[in-house]
Amino acid sequence: MTGVEKAQALRDRKGGARIAALTAYDYPTARLLDESGIDLMLVGDSLGMVALGFPDTTHVTLEHMRHHVAAVARAEPTALVLADLPIHTYPDPDTAVANARLLVEAGAEAVKLEGGIRQADKVRAITEAGIPVCGHLGMLPQRVLEEGGYHKKGRTPEQLDALREGAWALIEAGVFAIVLESVVQEAAGELTATLPVPTIGIGCGETTCDGEVAVVTDLIGSFPWFVPPFARPEADVAHSIRTAAAAYVQRVRQP
Questions:
Q1: 165 carries an active-site annotation
Q2: CB atoms within 10 A of CB 71
Q3: Which H or E element spans position 180?
Q4: Of 158, 181, 186, 206, which one is the catalytic site residue?
Q5: Looking at domain 3-214, what is its CATH homologous superfamily?
Q6: Where are the beta strands (DSSP E) in 24-113?
Q7: Which of 2, 6, 116, 136 could disulfide-link to 179, CB 3.0 to 4.6 Å?
Q8: What is the spatial distance between Cα 96 and Cα 104, in angstroms, rounded to a whole number?
């Protein structure tokens, strides 16, 4: 299937089988996730923290993203490969299209950008260029410095109205799905029930949205220094690595 066909297939899942999505940043992880049946692999700018050691996503560049997208794409996954457009790479429609094409050249099949109404013209331009787009509303990591931290969204009627207006602007511009991040459960549930495209939640409650996306390092426990309160680790890879490395050190140092 082409990227456009994969994106349409996910859009058609609205109200049906829930979408299981995980982040991926490298070739072996992409292969393993695809063998596990994941529907969507997000090469997220979260790689800034969990792969590159930055304090937030605002340090991630387009070249960082292209490097990691290419690694994931080499696994030739059947899952849709969705890549984040990093901060400062979509200031206007023409630039957004040019940079989306660079991510596609690296191996992405679709792109994601953050924001609602003010991003609609960029979404429209990218989709008209034949590249599927996923929206992202709620807590926007690329605006963490502007907002002074990570805050839940949708707590007030005004915030819910803003989310709803942003979602419809993105839908009218052509997105195939919308990620909702750290939106309070009641608001995320209302949006999921009323929007015609799938919502993919993170930090919105486990069954609130049409699907879920998790950061793979949170899932497998390979980044123990910070785990979000909503994360549900299924493994403890950090412990396994420490144990294996310590055993190796002991073996090497034995007389």
A1: no
A2: 19
A3: strand 177-181
A4: 181
A5: Phosphoenolpyruvate-binding domains (3.20.20.60)
A6: 40-43, 80-84, 110-112
A7: 136
A8: 12
Nearest to 33 by CA among 77, 83, 74: 77
Q: How far is CA 146 from CA 107, 151, 202, in A?
A: 31, 12, 21
b (16+ CB within 10 A) / e for 199-213: bbbbbbbeebbbbbb
Cα distances (angstroms) measured from residue 151 to each of 9, 57, 155, 164: 32, 15, 10, 18
Instruction: Judge whether residue 146 has pLDDT over 90.
Output: no
Its pTM stands at 0.95
Q: What is residue 28's three-state secondary structure?
A: helix
174 within 8 A of 130, measured Cβ to Cβ:
no
H helix runs in 142-182, sequence order:
144-147, 157-173
Residue 96 token pair: 């957004």
Residues 6+ apart with CB under 8 A from 67: 106
Tokens of 171: 């839908």
Angstrom distances, CA of residue 217 to CA of 47, 81, 166, 223, 234:
10, 18, 30, 6, 10
- Give percent above pLDDT 90 in the chain: 95
Give dist(CA 58, CA 158) in Å, integer: 27
Q: What is the rounded CA–CA span in Å between residue 161 and residue 242?
A: 47
